[in-house]
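DM from R.C. (forwarded with permission)

"hey, sorry to bug you on a friday — could you get me a structure for this? deadline for the figure draft is monday and I only need the backbone to look sensible"
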Amino acid sequence: MRLPHINVPWSDDERLGVTVYFAHPYSSWERARNENMNRMVRQWFPKGLDFRSLHDLDVQSVERMLNNRPRKSLGYRTPKEVLYNLKI
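My reply, with the result:
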């Protein structure tokens, strides 16, 4: 089964050379990275939690921890290192 894709007029997809794909509803296996990130976020914030009840500093703290956590898919570099092209 192929994922649906379109060229989105509001993106720079042609200039950047990327294609935008949309997963089928209720097909979590088509969104593996998204599901993995959700699992990591759930370590701190349980499913069903109303995020409006959290302080910004709580969310920023978890964001900082996740962005500084090495990932196998990034060659054991952190997302922050990859984003800013840092050498460690």
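R.C.: lifesaver. The helical segments are 13-16, 32-41, 56-67, 79-83.
me: no worries. The chain has a mean pLDDT of 82.
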